[in-house]
Every structure is written in C-alpha cells, then in structure tokens.
Design a protein that fits this description.
globular, D-Maltodextrin-Binding Protein, domain 2, 19 strands, Dipeptide-binding Protein, domain 3, alpha+beta, disordered N terminus, five-stranded antiparallel sheet, 14 helices
Length: 526
C-alpha cells in the first residue's frame, strides 16, 4: 500500500510509458459489489470492474456487451441472449484452479440477476425487476452460452434496465466463495480489476490483460495500465488538485469555483484554453420544484401551479446563477438527450402578466399575496432566492426552509413537504424513466407529487406494451404535454454534463449519464 498498490516494492519506479488515470469521486464507496451500485461513485467504479449483458453508447443506443446478440419474442415476454465465447472472469487463485473455471456462462448470468431480487442480498436495485418477471421462472439457462429472461407482461425499456450497473455479471463461483466478503473481492469481466482499496480514501485498479473487447485494429482494451480514484466530498479540494495537475479529470461545477473556470456564457476561461479541455453534453437530469397534490394540499388548484410556472425567468436564472450550464426547462419534464424532448407545444416561459392574471382569478395579488413555503437544501439556496424575488413581484410571498438532503427526501416520501425542490436522473435511456414519476399506482418514491390521472396512467401502460417506436414516442409526447398542462411540477432546467480534463487525455467518450468509460482512454505526452 505504501507503493500505492501499483508496483511491487522491488520496482518503485514505473516505466516511462506507464499510463495512470487519476481523478476524484465526490462521495465514499461502501461496496464493490455491483448489486449495490446505487450512486454515481459506485456506478463509475463498478463500470470498470463489471460488464453487463448490454451497454449504452454515447448516443444512448443499447449495444452488445457480454451478449453478442439477442432476440425479443413477438409478444415482448421472452428475451433470449447469446453470450460471447471465451470471455474470462478476473484471475483469482483462491477461487479458480484452471482457466476453464473462469469462463462466463449462462449460469453466471442467472446467478447475477437472481441475487438482485433475493431478499438475502438486500440490493437497493431490487426495484428494477419488481412486478416485471415471470412468476414461475424468470431467469432461464437454455445452454452454457444462451440465457433467457422471461417477463410476466411486456416492458419495452427492459434492455435499458439490463444495461444498469446493478446488472453487472459476477462470477457465481467467486461470489459463493467470498460470500459477504464479496463486497471487497469483486470478480467480474471488466477492463480493470482491484489492486488495492482503502475504504474512505482511494481505490487502485489495474489493467485486465485478458479483457475481451478490442479496437478496430485488433488492439485489446483498455489502453490505460491503471486507474486511481480518490474519494472526497470536498469539491473545492478536487478542483484545486485538478488545477495543480495532481489529477487528470474534473466532473461538474460548483459555485465555489465556477467563476474561476468559466466565462459568464458558460465557455471555458480564455486563459485556461491551452491547458484544459471542456466538454459539455446533455445530462439526463431534470431539476424541478414539486407540488404535493393530496386532497389537503394548498396546491390542488391548477391555476396556482400554472401561475408559479409562468412567474419567473428561467433564462436569466441560468445565465446569472449557473453561467448557462444547463438548458432552461421550458419544454416539459423530459430533458434534452431523449427523442421526446421539445414536444410540439411549448412549456412555460416567463410571462409575468399571465401569472398575475391567474393569481387574480383566485383573489391573490400584491396587496393580498399568496403565502407558500419551499423545502430545499443549502446547495440550491441561490436558485430559491432568485425565484423568491421574482415571485414577490407578482404577488407571491415565498419562505425558504433549508434541510439536509436525507431529511428532505424523508419528508418528500412521507408527504409532509407540500412544496419541494428535487431532481430526476434517468436510470436508463428511455423516457419511461421520467413518466414513471407520475404513474398514479406508484408510491413515493418515485411519485413524490402523488399525481394521479386515469388518462395519464392509461397512456403510460399502453406505452409499456407498444413495440413500434414511433407510436411509443407519440404516447410519450402526449404524456409530457399532459404534464405541462396539469403542472404537478415546476421544471427548472435540464442539466448538462461538464467535463474538464487535461489535453493529454484522449478517448474519453461523452455520455448522458456522466459515466466514465475508461477502457477507451489513453494519455499522450503532449
């Protein structure tokens, strides 16, 4: 460990061309088991260690991974996957006596997916298969290289579900051997394996010399020799380390240093452009304010919800508070990056007079302001204050209550926060991941607003069974239009992935989930 786990102590000086990628991850890691890959830090580590049956490319398409191909039955209930031949799990002398024992089989796939739903595993990802699997036998081995998934009813986004890190394929033999200690001895097929993990501090990964994927010239991925992730919730610390050249990559932006990196228009500072590369891409994340819509809620009247939507300037908010990072949310709940984005009719733009008229119809105005309270966290205080000041001009008196994130989520779940700030990040590249938030039969989470519409639910259920993509997108647009009209939320902005990295870094692919696909990355001297 004193040698960082990268080289033996007999050879403390690495070769000159030894390539190490270093970066901070902004939360701690509790397990290396993909069944617990719940947050972005865990997903980014798991992505290096495990492959799933399928993956998502930079254009949000589902592409082959451990499964080289698949078929879906006409009724949408049977998914048959054909595994790549001769894919090996990571080496582990304690577990495997011969390379033949390291071969990935359909039995490993059945084991990996079954343990997600097993109460003994207690995986936070168990919800991905809830009420979706065949009740008799959901995971089925046809032969060593062929796996079949069986559903109880059609669910069109299932391939997206299977691309999630929860569905990383593990070695059945290794998981049974290590049992509860598998969390620190992860055996997968990914491009890297664990060399050293110091909980709460860092993890060092080494190149998997037997990785199955190759580039177009036949060279094996990954190109990097090693990866070092450092865990820290201190964003200023990671920023300083990046500026001092101690790490190769910085993700996202924080108010404490945004003006040191960005111009007001969101572009990189001119003085930094020779030393830093900035890439921005749509992030499948919608930031919003949500209304509780129970019978006793003060927000049951639609005109109030619509007035609040019209009553502030999203364009100005983004320009002055976020340096134009993100897109003002004037096109519904689905963010940019998915086909349903921007339905034919617009969403809510800044129309102060229209907001005043809606409030006046209900007896509110500057002399008799509507009094409401917003629950949010300290990270969003500046946005809340901006909206507070603009609403004051149309006859709304907003008070702001700051809560810790965990406490806010608890109140949203219990229904004690009647007006709250939240965000929704897609779990997979399908609009269904957004509309499930408003499905009336869903609890909180995800339906924190308790929105309940028989017509919306009918459209949602119809979309799940529709195999024609064009028809399904049409249903999605109808649902998004309905959300605009009924206004159970106030969309604030559609987020963007902000990636800063050294010009020496090449091959870092953009994606809408802010995941690090490091198997394609390499470093140059210049």
């Amino acid at each position: 460990m004193l040698c960082l786990g990268l080289y033996s102590c007999k050879n403390e000086t690495p070769p000159e061309n030894y390539q190490i990628f270093k970066c901070y991850l902004n939360s701690h890691l509790n397990s290396l088991d993909p069944a617990f890959a719940r947050d972005l830090t865990a997903m980014n580590v798991s992505l290096q260690l495990f492959d799933a049956l399928v993956a998502v490319d930079e254009n949000n398409n589902i592409v082959p991974s451990l499964a080289k191909s698949w078929e879906i039955s006409d009724d949408g209930l049977r998914y048959t996957f054909h595994l790549r031949p001769k894919v090996l799990f990571h080496e582990d002398a304690k577990v495997f006596r011969h390379n033949s024992e390291r071969l990935v089989t359909a039995q490993d796939v059945v084991f990996s997916l079954s343990r997600i739903t097993d109460p003994k595993t207690a995986s936070p990802g168990a919800w991905i298969f809830a009420d979706r699997l065949d009740e008799k036998e959901a995971f089925f081995v046809l032969n060593d290289s062929t796996f079949q998934l069986r559903l109880r009813k059609p669910f069109r986004p299932m391939l997206g579900i299977l691309s999630m890190q929860y569905c990383g394929i593990v070695s059945q033999k290794a998981a049974k051997y290590y049992d509860i200690d598998f969390r620190e001895h992860p055996i997968g097929t990914g491009p890297f394996y664990v060399k050293a993990w110091r909980e709460g501090e860092s993890i060092v990964l080494r190149r998997n010399e037997n990785y199955w994927e190759k580039d177009t010239l036949g060279n094996a991925f990954p190109y990097l020799d090693a990866v070092k992730f450092i865990f820290s919730e201190n964003k200023k610390q990671s920023f300083l380390a990046f500026m001092q050249g101690e790490i190769d990559y910085l993700s996202g932006i924080d108010a404490s240093y945004k003006d040191e990196l960005l111009e007001k228009d969101g572009s990189l500072k001119k003085s930094l452009r020779n030393n830093i590369v900035l890439h921005k891409t749509p992030y499948l994340n919608t930031e919003y304010l949500g209304f509780l819509l129970t019978e006793e809620s003060p927000f049951r009247q639609k005109k109030i919800r619509q007035a609040l939507n019209y009553g502030f300037d999203r364009q100005t908010m983004m320009q002055y508070l976020r340096n134009n990072i993100g897109i003002p949310a004037t096109a519904g709940f689905v963010p940019k990056g998915l086909p349903t984005f921007a339905p034919p009719q617009p969403g809510y733009t800044y129309q102060a007079e229209k907001a005043k008229a809606l409030l006046a119809d209900l007896g509110y105005g500057l002399e008799n302001p509507l009094k409401i309270r917003l629950f949010t966290t300290s990270s969003y205080k500046d946005l809340a204050t901006f909206i507070q000041q603009q609403w004051q001009q149309i006859g709304i008196n907003l008070s702001i209550e700051l809560l810790p994130s965990a406490h806010l989520r608890e109140q949203m779940s219990k229904g004690t926060a009647t007006f709250f700030r939240a965000s929704w990040i897609a779990d997979y590249p399908d609009e269904e991941s957004y509309f499930t938030v408003f499905y009336g039969k869903n609890p909180a989470p995800p339906n924190y607003t308790r929105f309940n519409s028989t017509f919306f639910d009918k459209l949602y259920e119809q979309s799940l069974q529709e195999n024609n993509d064009s028809i399904r997108r049409s249903l999605y647009r109808k649902m998004d239009s309905m959300l605009i009209e009924e206004a159970p939320i106030i969309p604030l902005y559609y987020d963007e992935v902000m990636r800063f990295y050294s010009p020496k870094i090449h091959g870092l692919k953009d994606n809408a989930f802010n995941l690090l696909f490091l198997k394609y990355v390499y470093k140059s001297e210049e």
